[in-house]
């Protein structure tokens, strides 16, 4: 069995985690550029863990400029097996209230100004993202959140918008009423797609901060309200993360859902037609099969 290494990508309001033994900020360079920040590595209750603040410490990167490919490559490169993405989100459902967490299991990708794949000319691959999150990892997050006493909802569709502006009222109503989205954020795409290409299990934990702009009693979303809710959410998220090592264990059986074998039949470019420079860039992401 392989060693588990839990990688936590911290969203807005979650820029570090405490309690890691042997904690060290590690600088990692990748063929896709520099990640959002150094990666905090160490062990928690005997399980290897890595933490990467998505926007960088000090919140430097906007949702559009987050270096998603570098982030996922860097996590894979240092040995991460399971990625838990923690994100601040607006809610389209009355019952998913600010302060609650949602274990997201589907996405609608409305982003348009980001690099979305490690593959392309010189090495073409098509992975399935029909089920973009890992049920095994999602179940562990659900249990960790429940054990922490968080009001958590199992399953939800996350609408990924480009931002950085929030949605118009018409968009908010359309996402909620016609498209059936449950939560909205700006960062989980292409992160989830890239994690699948890199054969990493990926779970997304949405921390609800607001009701976006559809709710008649809550008015429009504003960032001061989001930050106020985030202050409470961040400590809950840290407590949830602390439960994960015990639930996942230090040794890991292959993913029963095949996340860690996603590239098995995905590469279409014939071996003799593959571009050597492109192949070199894929050393961490696709090294298992190349
Ligand atoms: C702080 S409000 C908008 C900002 O918060 C979310 O970031 P993240 O997903 O990294 O927690 C949202 O997607 C926006 O980027
Ligand atoms: N309402 C919202 N829309 C997009 N991203 C968000 N992040 C937190 N709240 C959000």
TrEMBL record:
Alphabetically sorted, this entry's keywords are: Glycosyltransferase, Purine salvage, Transferase
Gene Ontology terms, cellular component aspect?
A: cytosol
Using the record's annotation, list all stretches that form the Nucleoside phosphorylase domain: 6-227
Q: Name one GO molecular function term.
A: S-methyl-5-thioadenosine phosphorylase activity
Q: Which reaction does it catalyse?
A: S-methyl-5'-thioadenosine + phosphate = 5-(methylsulfanyl)-alpha-D-ribose 1-phosphate + adenine
Q: In which pathway does it act?
A: Amino-acid biosynthesis; L-methionine biosynthesis via salvage pathway; S-methyl-5-thio-alpha-D-ribose 1-phosphate from S-methyl-5'-thioadenosine (phosphorylase route): step 1/1
InterPro entries, per database record: MTAP (IPR010044), Nucleoside_phosphorylase_d (IPR000845), Nucleoside_phosphorylase_sf (IPR035994)
Important for substrate specificity, annotated site positions: 167, 223
Among the GO biological process terms of this entry, one is: purine ribonucleoside salvage
Pfam families (alphabetical): PNP_UDP_1
Provide the binding site for substrate: 186, 210-212
Assigned EC number: 2.4.2.28
Q: What does this protein do?
A: Catalyzes the reversible phosphorylation of S-methyl-5'-thioadenosine (MTA) to adenine and 5-methylthioribose-1-phosphate. Involved in the breakdown of MTA, a major by-product of polyamine biosynthesis. Responsible for the first step in the methionine salvage pathway after MTA has been generated from S-adenosylmethionine. Has broad substrate specificity with 6-aminopurine nucleosides as preferred substrates.
Q: How does it assemble?
A: Homohexamer. Dimer of a homotrimer.
User: Which family does the record assign?
Assistant: Belongs to the PNP/MTAP phosphorylase family. MTAP subfamily.
Q: Which PANTHER family match?
A: S-METHYL-5'-THIOADENOSINE PHOSPHORYLASE
Q: What is this protein called?
A: S-methyl-5'-thioadenosine phosphorylase
Question: Where does this protein come from, organism-wise?
Answer: Litoreibacter ascidiaceicola
